[in-house]
Design brief:
This protein is mainly β. It has 1 helix and 7 strands; from the N terminus they run βββαββββ.
Length: about 110
């Protein structure tokens, strides 16, 4: 845990039919949450993220999967009514990329 509101690790993110890749930090995976914030080191992924955001994504379903050693799934959360709220990470000197998502419902999938 990174304090009371976030987790560090690997978090694979899919929204609708888009694979948004793996993030290294995630906050907001608690029950009743309406905002999830993901971040990762900036590594040339801005074009793919901008492509998704410019496509004017509609409310969709999504999934966040926490990965363990050798990228084995440890836990998963289903997101309903998910939409991008804010993205930061473009431009020189932006070492991290941060994606903020809103969702109508967040459910942990029991493994």
């Amino acid at each position: 845990m990174t304090g009371s509101d976030g987790l560090d690790g690997l978090f694979e993110v899919r929204i609708g039919d888009r694979d948004l890749g793996v993030f290294t930090s995630c906050a907001g995976l608690e029950a009743g949450t309406v905002v999830v914030v993901l971040s990762r080191p900036q590594a040339g992924r801005a074009a793919a993220m901008l492509d998704w955001l410019r496509s004017r994504p509609e409310k969709s379903i999504g999934e966040i999967t926490m990965l363990g050693p050798e990228r084995a799934p440890l836990a998963s959360w289903s997101l309903a009514g998910v939409m991008p709220v804010q993205w930061n990470g473009r431009g020189p000197g932006a070492p991290f990329e941060t994606l903020e998502l809103s969702c109508a419902d967040l459910t942990r999938i029991i493994w």
